[in-house]
Batch of 3 targets.
Target 1
Amino acid sequence: MIFDFKYKSLIFASKYSETKRGDTKSPLLFLKKMELKEHIAQLAQNHLPDDSYYLVDVVIKGTDTRRKVLVLIDGDNGVDIDACASVSRALGGELETDELLNEAFTLEVSSPGIDHPISMVRQYKGRVGKRLKLTLKTGDEVTGKLESATDDGITFLKEIKKGKKTETEETNLKYNEIEKSFVLISFK
């Protein structure tokens, strides 16, 4: 048999390695998912409305019989529902035409939202003026306002509680000092 190495041989190898319980433990299955993720990311990138939009992540979840593909996009001026719908229609059609997913799947295209951490320099630059909660590599958690973002790091007004008062202290952080960052939503 001759296999197209990129996909068919990996599918064959992962099916071949199934255990009697039906679990797949092949390291090749992980490789197949990574290649699939990269391929979907490239397709999604090609369908972004314009250069002000960018791909944040592609997450593939679920079982072999029912997958969920989550495509997270962001924009320099935010993301509207029309941009998500446009990418979803184009990407969904291409995924079905190319038969990249041989099983049933659900495709969701959205902006990252508050439950997804900031993961790119471009996202920091678009969140200047927002309140963030940072988890640093040291394990410390700090909250404050993002003052500026450059290609090297951020300037952050760290909130320091002193009794009932909250004071701020300007702090410069490199991106490699930050473990996770989340935008805080204010309901004031």
Target 2
Amino acid sequence: MINDDAIEFKATGFDYVNPAALVVLVGITPGNTQLLGSRCGKTLREIKRENAFAGGMRNNLSRMLDHIGVNMLLGISSCRSLWNEDFDKVEMTSLLKDATYYKGKMFNRASDILRSRKLTNALYNGFIKDCSSYSEAMLFVAMGDGVGRVLSHLVSEGVISVPVVVVPHPSGANAGRIAVFLGSKPSGLDLASRRAREQAIQAKLTISQMRASA
């Protein structure tokens, strides 16, 4: 059970919304790395481009996106360029747009969002409100199964009407799952490894079907 009184939000300045985005990358909440990024004298667009999925997450995420064919779907050589010359093709956002803490620690339980009135309100007033702007989007990419379950719920509610694929969260703490997802490490018998392999197979299939029908 989530105690709403133990939830705290910190503004990140990630208010820029890209209505021309073709792919929407969705995390749980901006983290401490994003909060520490430079803001002075920069536009909202520049703040998001420089700080969204920053640090080691950016390399992990671009590798996973290339692995499942998002670069080919967008007609670019690599998804690394999504933080540079191809930034206009992507939206980088989170279910909870402000940095969210629970009992003083970074909130990381996406599946619990819909069990909390406070978090559900934040979801509807931020992410879901923004979804109406993504009229050009053809794919949502969820960072982790928890985010994927929330996006699947929004598909069932008619908020999202395009395919959703799931990749492991790009945090360095997920290095093992990411390696299995990328095929650079054999899948073990544990649930996390098997799930990472399933995510890669399903995501590749979804994007392959999208490209075939384009």
Target 3
Amino acid sequence: MGESNCISVSASFAKCFVPHKERGRLVVLEGSPCAGKTTTLSQLKKCYDGIVVPELDHTGEAHLLTVGQIQSWYLVAEIDRQPVIQQGLMQSRTVFQDRNVLGTLAFSYASARLSRSHAPFTRLLNRTLKDANRRLVRPDILVALYVDEAVGLDRRRRLSGEPLDPIWADLDFLRYHAEFYRAAIPLFPADTLVVLDTTNLTPEETANVVEQRVRRALFR
């Protein structure tokens, strides 16, 4: 399992996404932990009076579930929130989605690489291709933010302390997580890709750069 596998995954799950015909725009933000996504999302919402579809969070009961059960929950929840996205687009609003199914696949891929057990990732991928087939809204713009793994981890520790889940403090896991994104993002089904390495940028600088690029894409 490596970069070639990531690319084949990206090509496969493209069929899960269907272009929308509404006047609104869907902007999805993805990428590495502590790359500046939260600050960027906040600025974009204010600039465009957009609707924010927040990141899915199931950490409250995570200790009661297996990794496979958590990932399955994320997939079901992603499918279930598509009507909210569609409604915003029908209202001609700009919808900003904080992560989509790509984030769940990246986590599963990194976990599989770390454990050297590829079966859980393969099961999740097959289920995604089956259950989400043509049920997810294709983004107009995909924003992908990257950060050096050690820099991102240091940011997290300074901002909020040690990660509650120790896997997010494992540099090998973070490298595998980024590996999936770097291979899959260029082939992701979206009209426009906005890709930015934020290692040497502050969150505010990241937000400003992304806002300018998103503006050009929205009004070109």
